[in-house]
UniProtKB/TrEMBL annotation:
It comes from Nonlabens spongiae. NADP(+) binds at residues 83-88, 136, 585-586, 590, 601-603, 650. One of its GO terms (molecular function) is isocitrate dehydrogenase (NADP+) activity. This is Isocitrate dehydrogenase [NADP]. The lineage of its organism: Bacteria, Pseudomonadati, Bacteroidota, Flavobacteriia, Flavobacteriales. It catalyses: D-threo-isocitrate + NADP(+) = 2-oxoglutarate + CO2 + NADPH. It holds the Pfam family IDH.
Amino acid sequence: MAKSSTIIYTKTDEAPALATASFLPIIQKFVSPAGITMETMDISLAGRIIALFPDYLKEEQQQPDALAQLGEMVKEPEANIIKLPNISASVPQLNAAIKELQEKGYNLPDYPIKPQNDEEREIKSRYDKVKGSAVNPVLREGNSDRRAPQPVKQYAKNNPHSMGAWSSDSKSHVSTMSEGDFAHNEKSYTVPSATTATIRFNKEDGSVVELKKGLTLQEGEIIDATFMSKNHLISFFENQIKDAKENDVLFSLHMKATMMKVSDPIIFGHAVRTFLKPVFDKYQETFSELGVNVNNGLGDLLGKLEKLSDDKKSEIQEAIWQVMNEQPDLAMVNSDKGITNLHVPSDVIIDASMPAMIRNSGQMWNKNGESQDTKAVIPDSSYAGIYDATIEFCKKNGALDPTTMGSVPNVGLMAQKAEEYGSHDKTFELDASGTVEIVDADGNVILSHKVEAGDIWRACQVKDAPVRDWVKLAVKRARATGDPAIFWLDENRAHDAQLILKVNEYLKDHDTNGLDISIASPIEATKTSLERMKKGLNTISVTGNVLRDYNTDLFPILELGTSAKMLSIVPLMNGGGLFETGAGGSAPKHVQQFEKENHLRWDSLGEFLALAESLDHYSQANNNEKAGIIAEALNKATEKFLLNKKSPSRKVNERDNRGSHFYLAMYWAQELAAQTQDTELASQFKELAEALEKNEEKINQELIEVQGQTMDIGGYYKPDADKETAAMRPSKTLNEIIG
Ligand SMILES: NC(=O)C1=CN([C@@H]2O[C@H](COP(=O)(O)OP(=O)(O)OC[C@H]3O[C@@H](n4cnc5c(N)ncnc54)[C@H](OP(=O)(O)O)[C@@H]3O)[C@@H](O)[C@H]2O)C=CC1
Ligand SMILES: O=C(O)CCC(=O)C(=O)O
Ligand SMILES: [Mg+2]
């Protein structure tokens, strides 16, 4: 049970976890006068791994399964959770985290990629629970409301970020499949009455495999099935590699291998294999012996070569470089270190990578560290069109102007593992040709596909209650803002056609008088939204789960320069509140900078916004006036923070994340001292405000003088808690004031 006096602040990974070590003590100081306890729950990758293996660990090493507990909590009306971004681990990240924990004395088993016996299969199935996007879908028992708050938008208009210029002769473009992909093979069905289904694979040789049993389907639920044809995918890659070479553009693959943890690493693997086909043809046997898993990227292959004798290693490395030379240049993740777009599946994540490319004149980095026109390869065509439409818009109109452009907030359907993002347990790479079918409890075949060996088949679900709630939230946002709302749904797509029937039906439950609510395909909706945006007008995008993810990086990155400044609320369907911080991730490169020179450029604005919403929700849910006043003061402090430009600098020896927290605290205390609704609170915070003001210079100095040195906090995935605290709270003066 969630206690009603408690707000949960999640402990996650990387930059957000570092920021928490500095910011949480400040929060605790400010909320305690309202009787609120801030409790942390550890959902970091390391924490989640440890929680999986109590039977392998010493008692003092064990940790409870905080994610499972939170998963229950979000269903209770008292839930009030601030959720920071966490690592959605690819296999290379998972392996690195396991290795770090093993080195710290945790007797954890290795992750068995190809389990050989029951014990290994059991270990793998445990690890698969923490792999990829394993946190967000569990916590998201509500739909999402993501937008740029007014002061943030105003700040961007007054202080525009750089936007790379676009020219009409840019060769950059999006390439996507025109047949054989998930989009083109999709079939969809709305369940008339509750049933329990089975996913059955009738193989060509006559054998039958039950891929999944006990799939419960609720009345009114939409279920889709589709597959990606391996043959079509490979010939698509072959054509695109050739085309990139001919047109002298960088080849760049954009996937969501973290969130789409089953399908997308396989697709990624096919890209690597196709790119290096002659090498794979020649050395397949050696690669199998080495246990190369190409789904983990070129990095895995190169790493495994280290096990070979020097001669053999050089021979294969030589062969790889030779093929790489003949192929088009790859977009680079890090040109200095020679890390390509195909090295690690979690290095290039489409939601963040495509907007970054668009903001950078449609260019990515080549091996010489120069930016160059790029072919963005997005195999499945379900959503690729929105990036194509945006790129074509920029070619025609030039870059958008942050000082005048409008906004595209989002209302996203994501509750209860909606759509593709809940498909992992129903995604299969097929080992033979045959027919995959979903069969209901009465033996009726609901959906069926003919497949070939190597195809990736998947089913996606969306329950009825989340759809109703999503429509309600869309109407609410349209009413609150007066802005037009567009449901981004394509009547020609099987799933969307089913959803459109529901949207039209459920809109009737609301007063939509005077509101401008329409339905348009994602491509048309992109065009309309961009045209309006250029004129300074706002358009609410009401989308499914994948476009929620894409749009809440795409538009914010163009509008605000980053999605870190988004307000990201999840009104939980049972009445609680989940407050996500920003729309971005955990920015691993910020940690690298921190370790190199003790400067953390993570901007906690997302945390400030989420915290204010959480306190406001708390105040209303518990009739706690003080919490409301503290929330309002925080919002005012955040405005002042923006106005006075106290965000972290990107450069060492200037104010970083820690210094930005100091300013937030000072402004927050000043606002609380100045308000007149609660004189007790005012007097409590007056002294604090004065102490912070008086020591401003000294604290700044203490926070900056520690920078410029390497920083070791005793680990990456599980840092040493004391070292982390010491690193993130280096100002003695500030610590004494905060306590
Ligand atoms: N909700 C969640 O839990 C999410 C988790 N993730 C996870 O995050 C990791 C990294 O993903 P990636 O796709 O690189 O996306 P990120 O959002 O972490 O990073 C992309 C870039 O955005 C900028 N950025 C994002 N947030 C901030 C911030 N608060 N302050 C300053 N800059 C910020 C940085 O750019 P620059 O430094 O150039 O300014 C950063 O390099 C992955 O493990 C991914 O799975 C990703 C998205 C959401
Ligand atoms: O859960 C994840 O892997 C990423 C989530 C994400 O990118 C988002 O919600 O915007
Ligand atoms: Mg995202």
